[in-house]
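Private note to self, pasted from the team thread so I don't lose it. Backbone tokens:
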């Protein structure tokens, strides 16, 4: 069996602005859509990708905001979109529907590194890492010699970047419709600047 020596290029895209992002609340439902601003952000991301890359595949979280972002990009690039449930956003449990600032009143949020914090009924970023990274690795292996777009969420992208860099330290949430490009070759990953 021969392996393609060319690296996989994985273009990570955070969904465009959703109604939850606009309202500064944790999303109550996977069905919350993009805003008009979010759709425009997705169009701009598509143009940026088309100018620099030649992806052959696009995979997105099943959540509406990621699917809508992915569909806008897919249409611009003439691709079809696939879904991957493991790329869904972190569940914020009891904080669903509450303002972002509500978690600051949760004493456990302040007890240690943010990636260990697990809201009641929800997931920690470590939980997201444990479900998203295996899917990411499968996508990377299937993408050797190709470019693949992965549309997901802020928490998922934090987890994937922690995997690629080997550290959670100094990671920040990617802006809506922001891109992070990762190369994978010979079992190694690196973020392209």
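Design output:
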């Amino acid at each position: 069996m021969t392996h393609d020596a060319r690296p996989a290029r994985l273009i990570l895209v955070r969904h465009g602005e959703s109604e939850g992002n606009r309202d500064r609340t944790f999303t109550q439902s996977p069905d919350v859509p993009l805003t008009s601003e979010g759709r425009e952000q997705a169009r701009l991301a598509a143009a940026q990708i088309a100018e620099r890359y030649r992806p052959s595949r696009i995979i997105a979280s099943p959540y509406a905001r990621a699917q809508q972002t992915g569909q806008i990009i897919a249409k611009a690039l003439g691709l079809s979109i696939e879904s991957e449930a493991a790329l869904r956003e972190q569940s914020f449990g009891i904080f669903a529907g509450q303002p972002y600032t509500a978690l600051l009143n949760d004493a456990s949020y302040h007890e240690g590194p943010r990636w260990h914090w697990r809201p009641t009924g929800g997931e920690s970023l470590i939980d997201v890492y444990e479900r998203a990274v295996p899917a990411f690795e499968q996508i990377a292996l299937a993408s050797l010699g190709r470019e693949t777009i992965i549309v997901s969420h802020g928490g998922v992208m934090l987890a994937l970047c922690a995997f690629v860099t080997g550290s959670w330290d100094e990671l920040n949430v990617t802006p809506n419709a922001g891109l992070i490009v990762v190369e994978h070759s010979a079992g190694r990953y690196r973020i392209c600047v």
